[in-house]
Specification:
Keywords: Oxidoreductase. Residues 11-23 have a biased composition (Polar residues). GO terms for molecular function: oxidoreductase activity. It holds the Pfam family adh_short. By secondary structure, this protein is of the alpha/beta class. The chain has two domains: 37-129 and 146-323 and 369-428, NAD(P)-binding Rossmann-like Domain (Rossmann fold, 3-Layer(aba) Sandwich), CATH 3.40.50; 325-364, no CATH class. The protein is built from twelve helices and eight strands. An eight-stranded mixed beta sheet has the order 3-2-1-4-5-6-7-8, with helices on both faces. Strand 2 (104-109), helix 3 (112-124) and strand 3 form a beta-alpha-beta unit. Helix 2 (89-100) crosses helix 10 (368-380), helix 5 (202-232) runs parallel beside helix 6 (281-304) and helix 8 runs antiparallel to helix 9 (347-358). The longest helix has 31 residues, at 35-65. The two termini are 22 Å apart. Bound molecules: NADP nicotinamide-adenine-dinucleotide phosphate.
């Protein structure tokens, strides 16, 4: 049984408009695990990562001679998808893959300029043949110029709960349908404990808590919107549904939570979710990613309690792969060389490690296109196969047992509700 997350007592520092400066670093978290059990858990996580790195080397070598075709050549015209952190890395590749299939994609990002550039880059990408109203290529018809893909950028800073609430309020005012939320944005293992403007540990808030708040609020809005549409007996757009899930034809909303293989380290952090008594970057990241995985499973349990939502809404978690992104590269460079911090004599070794990561080390990482193909499994795969599941290595995978514990999930919901001040409506209870 999980020990209660009594460490999540809430903000201890007032907001001053800046991320708070770190206080503690590199201490093993208080946990009910013996050193041997903790060592085995970390060893398991490490070995799974190494195995995946070798799998990436193989895949990258294969792709030098053979490129797989595009998966899911579905036409998503009329669908509306939100991707948090869609301006970079895995989020960008996923947003582009969805837009290429005709979906309208909203990049929910904290930096206006980076988001605008990403939206422009996606809009210029050619659609997948056969999607977005483009005909499949045929030798007899000359190619028509492709239309720009449908994408926009909206502000969302997951380090600030008021930004999450403002995003949801704007969404409600817009009255738009919502088919898919990809809770992707993330922060990994800053070497020192860092607080958000809300005074919470940054990984816990950005990776889990703000996504929990965002997903719950947007689902509530979508359920209320479809219920109102049903009551009015009118349709507000293609496939907008005919009630708060009261019809099996309601298309429903899918929530994809981006977790990580590192969730297996998460139970070590469970007694102190905000890392108030100690901070170890990797384990705190694992705690936030375990919380994210639990969120997918618990949300699906809640959908399943309501027959109309069970038929329509889906929650799924995914480890997208160890990929060549700013997050992963910075992690391997910084965390991998943290032992040499402040020791001038060791800096040549650190430079060699960085040079390795910039060159040959990249072979151990997946490309963002490879990860976006896996993300499409989570976004577009069959609900019946995915609901409440965890995807990794391109298939449904067994997560850590801690992710399956409904008592731990209830505790997490209580902590999240207290820290955000948000109580999910009866339809999500
Ligand atoms: N790469 C991997 O190997 C790997 C493995 C397992 C899981 N993941 C997970 O995959 C997800 C995407 O990571 P990535 O590798 O694609 O990293 P990335 O390229 O660094 O992208 C991270 C995204 O998150 C955004 N973000 C960070 N803090 C934010 C905040 N406060 N509010 C809004 N957005 C914020 C970033 O925005 P800015 O551009 O403004 O910083 C960026 O768009 C993360 O959840 C990560 O934990 C990655």
């Amino acid at each position: 049984m999980a020990s209660p997350p009594d460490g999540a007592k809430g903000p201890t520092t007032s907001s001053n408009g800046q991320a708070q400066k770190p206080q503690k670093s590199y201490a093993f978290p208080r946990s009910d695990h013996t050193p041997l059990a903790a060592g085995l858990r970390l060893g398991h996580t490490f070995l799974e990562g190494v195995g995946e790195g070798l799998w990436n080397v193989w895949n990258n070598a294969v792709e030098c001679v053979w490129r797989p075709g595009e998966p899911y050549p579905h036409d998503l015209s009329g669908k509306v998808c939100i991707v948090t952190g869609g301006n970079a890395g895995i989020g960008f590749a996923t947003a582009r893959a969805l837009a290429r299939r005709g979906a309208h994609v909203v990049l929910a990002c904290r930096d206006r300029e980076r988001a605008r550039e990403a939206a422009e880059a996606i809009a210029r990408t050619p659609p997948l043949p056969g999607c977005c109203g483009t005909p499949s290529p045929s030798p007899s018809s000359p190619p028509a110029p492709p239309p720009p893909l449908s994408v926009e950028a909206l502000p969302l800073d997951l380090g600030r709960m008021d930004s999450v609430r403002a995003f949801a309020a704007d969404w409600r005012r817009g009255g738009r349908r919502l088919d898919l939320i990809v809770c992707n944005a993330g922060v990994m293992a800053p070497l020192q404990r860092t607080l958000t403007e809300d005074g919470l540990e940054v990984q816990f808030q950005v990776n889990f808590l703000s996504h929990w708040l965002l997903a719950n609020q947007l689902l509530q809005i979508e359920h209320e919107r479809t219920a109102a549409t049903h009551r009015d007996g009118s349709k507000s757009g293609p496939g907008s549904g005919s009630g708060s899930g009261s019809s099996p034809s309601r298309p429903g909303t899918r929530v994809v939570f981006v977790s990580s293989v590192v969730h297996r380290a998460g139970p070590l952090q469970w007694g102190d979710l905000l890392s108030e008594s100690s901070y170890e970057p990797y384990i705190t990241y694992g705690g936030s990613k375990l919380a994210t995985l639990i969120a997918a499973k618990e949300l699906q349990r809640r959908f399943d309690r309501h027959p109309e939502l069970r038929r329509s809404d889906t929650a799924v978690a995914i480890h997208p792969g160890i990929a060549r992104t700013a997050l992963a590269t910075a992690f391997f460079k910084d965390y991998g060389a943290a032992w040499a911090q402040g020791q001038p004599a060791l800096q040549p070794l650190v430079r060699m490690w960085h040079a390795f990561m910039d060159t040959a080390g990249q072979a151990f990482l997946a490309t963002t296109d490879q990860t976006s193909a896996r993300m499409l499994d989570a976004c577009l795969g069959e609900s019946s196969e995915l609901a409440g599941g965890y995807l990794a290595m391109g298939r449904v995978y067994a997560p850590d047992q801690a992710a399956e514990d409904p008592t731990r999930a209830e505790q997490l919901w209580a902590v999240a509700s207290r820290l955000t001040g948000y109580t999910p409506p009866p339809s999500l209870s």
